[in-house]
């Protein structure tokens, strides 16, 4: 958008602007400077406004909040002011000045529109709704019992509910928009940190204190530190979920650091058991400290840009190779041959299994999808091979033959699904979905007549058809990391 304004002002400044580069929040693009010569006052004013727009652009493009936030109101106020100032520029009826003013107004309006679209985008609202669900869950299960002075017992239901929310957040589509990706990353980072903290609490609940106070003089103080750490854990969960108006990351970090210093000063020499106990408590504290750098997470980093992540790059390399192998398999099937790259496909599965996800749910989801892509090609090859090698007996039951006929049709449909590259609104997608559903109905119509082999074959065929439908759905759900 800035390039449009630069082009409009180019002739009047007598020097072309470098408008060929897109403005990006991470770039160091130099602001254009007018040639040092006498210019029309209106054009100079438009240039001054444009410089302000230039400085606000990156802030607008990376804002990931909602309309009720202070930063949104500030940006909206600044852009509205600039729009009014553009409107007040007197063009004296000159066409060149009118064109420049119009372009400048369009630039500001575009930023205002972009700001509002992202703050009110359905995906942004979905992220906020899931964040509120997580807040309510944590408040009821952790914060309220802790504030009441009772013992906070982390239930399996709470752990499962947090995991479910993480999965739902992972599935939120951002369309590649930086503000939405930042908002999703920020929410996921905090919820994953909460999951890690409460899972640590769950592990602690299953273990009694390893030593009695009679063992060593230092054990009593270590036990007291453990009680303090337990309280800080609940405070940290509340802070991560935005439920603490009193604590801050800096305050909790200071408390935990002081506990580490106190533990380090304890004299536990000569007693290996007490040293190991203290070591466990230190590890507990360090595990909490690593979550206290999230206060500015997503604002001063670009970790949400997973395209630059090494694990994602490995996954994408595997997907690229799978795409090549899939094309070769389908080409050979088209001429009646069977290309069998199963050993390489199995090695790709092994490689995906070794990819480090760093507990990042988006990377885990990307890996899961890549695994499904590999498995889809493997199951296609297995069925093709079974159909080629099939030698039916003369007395084979008709219902068994009917199942195999459906499997043959499913194999042909799976080949079409494997090479499908469209959207759910496409006619080809709707047709494939209808044909696969018809095959499920055909299997439902098969009467096994008590034959166990037919029952098993039909059950496997139904599962196979459902897997093809799921894979078709996965290919068109427009998910991105």
From TrEMBL:
Residues 28-39 have a biased composition (Low complexity). Residues 59-119, 218-296, 344-385, 399-476 form the BAG domain. Residues 17-41 are annotated as: Disordered. Keywords: Chaperone, Repeat. Pfam families: BAG. InterPro entries: BAG_chaperone_regulator, BAG_dom_sf, BAG_domain. SUPFAM superfamilies: BAG domain. PANTHER family: BAG FAMILY MOLECULAR CHAPERONE REGULATOR 5 (PTHR12329:SF2), BCL2-ASSOCIATED ATHANOGENE (PTHR12329). This is BAG family molecular chaperone regulator 5. It comes from Umbra pygmaea (Eastern mudminnow).
């Amino acid at each position: 958008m800035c390039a449009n304004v630069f082009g409009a002002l180019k002739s009047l400044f007598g020097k072309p602007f470098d408008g060929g580069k897109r403005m990006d929040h991470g770039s160091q693009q130099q602001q254009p400077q007018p040639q040092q010569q006498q210019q029309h006052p209106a054009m100079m004013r438009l240039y001054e406004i444009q410089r302000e727009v230039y400085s606000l652009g990156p802030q607008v493009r990376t804002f990931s909040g909602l309309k009720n936030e202070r930063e949104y109101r500030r940006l909206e106020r600044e852009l509205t002011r600039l729009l009014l100032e553009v409107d007040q520029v007197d063009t004296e009826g000159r066409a060149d000045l009118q064109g420049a003013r119009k372009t400048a107004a369009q630039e500001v309006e575009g930023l205002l529109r972009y700001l509002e679209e992202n703050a009110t985008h359905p995906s942004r609202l979905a992220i906020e709704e899931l964040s509120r669900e997580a807040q309510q869950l944590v408040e009821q299960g952790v914060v309220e019992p802790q504030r009441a002075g009772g013992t906070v017992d982390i239930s399996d239901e709470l752990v499962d509910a947090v995991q479910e929310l993480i999965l739902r957040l992972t599935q939120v589509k951002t369309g590649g928009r930086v503000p939405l990706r930042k908002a999703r990353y920020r929410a996921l980072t905090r919820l994953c940190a909460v999951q890690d903290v409460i899972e640590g609490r769950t592990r602690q609940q299953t273990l009694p204190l390893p030593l009695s106070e009679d063992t060593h003089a230092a054990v009593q103080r270590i036990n007291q530190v453990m009680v303090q750490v337990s309280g800080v854990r609940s405070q940290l969960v509340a802070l991560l979920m935005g439920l603490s108006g009193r604590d801050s990351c800096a305050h909790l970090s200071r408390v935990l650091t002081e506990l580490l210093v106190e533990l380090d000063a304890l004299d536990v020499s000569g007693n290996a058991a007490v040293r190991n106990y203290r070591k466990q408590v230190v590890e507990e504290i360090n595990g909490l400290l690593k979550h206290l750098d999230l206060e500015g997470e997503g604002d001063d980093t670009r970790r949400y840009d997973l395209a630059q992540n090494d694990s994602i790059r490995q996954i994408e390399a595997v997907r690229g190779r799978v795409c090549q192998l899939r094309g070769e398999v389908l080409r050979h099937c088209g001429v009646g041959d069977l290309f069998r790259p199963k050993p390489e496909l199995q090695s790709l599965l092994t490689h995906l299994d070794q990819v480090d996800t760093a507990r990042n749910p988006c990377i885990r989801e990307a890996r899961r999808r890549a695994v499904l892509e590999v498995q889809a090609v493997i199951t296609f090859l297995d069925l093709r091979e079974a159909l080629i090698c099939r030698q039916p007996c003369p007395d084979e039951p008709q219902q068994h033959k009917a199942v195999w006929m459906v499997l043959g049709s499913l194999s042909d449909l799976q080949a079409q699904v494997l090479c499908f590259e469209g959207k759910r609104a496409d006619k080809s997608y709707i047709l494939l979905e209808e044909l696969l559903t018809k095959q499920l109905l055909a299997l439902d119509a098969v009467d096994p007549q008590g034959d166990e082999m037919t029952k098993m074959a039909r059950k496997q065929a139904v599962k196979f058809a459902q897997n093809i439908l799921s894979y078709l759905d996965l290919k068109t759900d427009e998910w991105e990391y």
